[in-house]
Structure formats: C-alpha cells, structure tokens
Amino acid sequence: MECILQAFLDDLELAGNIRQLRDVLAAIITGLGLGSYAYLALNNSPSRRPRLISSYDTRWTDHYLVKRYEQRDPVILRSLRDPEAFEWGPDTVWSGTSAWIRDFFHEAASFGIHAGLTIPMGRWQGGRAALTFAADCRSEILSAIRHCAGELRMIAYGFHKQVRNLFYPSYVIEGVSLSLRQVQCLEWLARGKTIEETAMLLKVKPSTVKQHLQIVREKLGVHTSAHAAMLLIELKRDRS
After folding, report:
1. Are 59 and 111 in contact (CB under 8 A)?
2. pLDDT tens digits, 57-87
3. How many CA atoms lie less than 13 Å away from 237 in the CB half-sphere?
C-alpha cells in the first residue's frame, strides 16, 4: 500500500491539467478496487458554478450541475457543517428528510451511486471542497472503501492540494504559472543542490525532480534548468 500511495503522490505532483488529475486519481481508485469518485469545490458566491472533477456518469453530473443540486445535496451540505469524514448510504438518516431527498438519492442510485465516504476539505475561494468515494450496490466495493478509509483521506488531501496548486499557482514567471513543487526544485537548484540532494530534501524520487525541471524548461521555453532558476531569482528580487 505504501508503494501505491507514493506512486500516486509522485504522479499527482506532475499532473499539469484537469485531465491528468482525473487520470491519476482514477488509476489509484481502480488499483484499490474501489468504485467511482467526485471532487466538488464550491465557491463562496452561490451564483458561481462549482468545480467538479468526477468519474461519475456524465449524464448524472451534467444533470446535477444544471439543476444546481450542490445547493441542496445533503452530502454536500453536511460536508460544509462537519469537517470530519463520514459515510452515507441508503440507511443514513438525514436531518429534515423529505420527499425531495428520497427522490434525489433514488435518482443518484439509478446512475450507480448508492453509498460512499465523503471527506470534507479546506477552503476554496472562500468556499469549501469535498471528495467522495462512491460505491454501487455491490457490498464488496463499500467494504473496500471502509478498509482503505485512512489511505483515502491521504489521497483526498493530496488531490485537493494539487488542485489548488494548479488553479492558484505560487509563482508566475514570464507569464507562465509554476506550481509550488516546481518552484521548490528551482530554489534548491539555485542553491547548488544536485538532483539527488533535492529529491532527498523534498522526499521524492530523483526522477520526479527531473520531470519537474523538464516541465519548467518547456513552460519557460529555456534550454537549461540553470536559466530557469535565474529567472526565478530575478522574480524574487523584483518582489523584494
């Protein structure tokens, strides 16, 4: 399990767009024998659409967003109130249970979403986010989710962090957005550290550091990592 999680975190760090994020999360979900997932990030303003990254049936997610279900979904509403992870399913008793809630879960079940584990996240543009690992009616999938609950929390927090890094990068150099990890690799390089030393300091594989630096070079259109590090130093000097 430790090797699987480390591979996930390494791949997650290198994901540079939504499709890659979705593929990385889907790969570990499949590897763990779990069901589907949905990451929903809410904005503070109800008028702004949420950000949804999901492996659910697109007919359901399109319908969900059009109907603005995130404003009434009992799973999402609980995640806003309760910072702790929680399970939900057909036997869950929701406060203010109504015919609409029963219809909502019946509708979700028709797309294979019967139960799950939801992990609330930290702040997102003044709002909050949550990642749900869902199961269909097969009990073995729900059992697998329960068995991996601790690991799923780590996966969820890592995924949320990378989404934030992707959409709210730490640095913009020459009009190009860089993630926190890409900047850290450049900073250690600028201090004279080798690839191997940087990997030890960041607790990642040397190959991951190399890939980060390659991505940075391609983004900035430079031929060497030293040139990229120099641009970072210049940016920091201008900021000070």
Report:
1. yes
2. 999 999 999 999 999 999 999 998 888 999 9
3. 6
| Residue-range domains of the chain with CATH | 2-167 (3.30.450.80), 171-239 (1.10.10.10)
Q: How confident is the model at residue 54 (pLDDT cuts 50, 70, 90)?
A: very high
CA atoms of 128 and 121, how far apart (whole Å) = 6
Residue among 46, 48, 51, 50 nearest 18 (CA): 51
Report the predicted TM-score, pTM, of the whole model to 2 decimal places.
Answer: 0.76
Q: How many CA atoms does the CB half-sphere of 94 hold within 13 Å?
A: 21
